[in-house]
Design brief:
143 residues, mainly alpha, elongated
Length: 143
């Protein structure tokens, strides 16, 4: 259904562009249909037909736009990304890691984020492939 409305919408857009370009411009230089040449219709008849056609195509454009908006609203998922999030319960700590009276600690148990990052990244042992000597002077290219 949505694909059919999109195709109709695109055909209306192309027709609307063509009809607008066929209209005689008042500036004299912008419209395609403003030149002389063989008169297919009189100026008054051509203006009335093109004006009515533009109005009909504009109404069809608005109608298909509104229809696409309504269809996308009914087929859409949740309106907020927070609607997708399932709440996970926080771990309950039974140990007092506060280190003082009244439990003034952070209330978390286990390793902190820095401990987890250090476990992931390798610790350098001091041995490397390249020698660790500093240059005697700054290394600047000279011409």
């Amino acid at each position: 259904m949505e694909t059919v409305i999109i195709v109709i919408h695109l055909m209306v857009i192309v027709a609307l562009i063509a009809v607008v370009l066929l209209q005689r411009s008042e500036g004299g230089a912008l419209g395609i249909g403003g030149g002389g040449g063989g008169n297919f219709m009189s100026t008054r008849g051509q203006t009335n037909v093109l004006t009515r056609t533009t109005a009909i195509l504009a109404a069809a454009f608005f109608a298909t736009s509104i229809a696409l908006t309504i269809l996308s609203r009914y087929q859409a998922g949740p309106a907020s990304i927070l609607d997708n999030v399932e709440p996970t319960p926080a771990p309950i700590s039974t140990e007092d890691t506060g280190g003082g009276a009244g439990g003034s600690g952070s209330g978390t148990s286990g390793p902190g984020i820095l401990d987890e990052l250090q476990a992931i990244t390798p610790v350098p042992t001091g041995e490397s492939d390249a020698p660790a000597t500093d240059p005697a002077s700054p290394q600047v290219p000279t011409d």
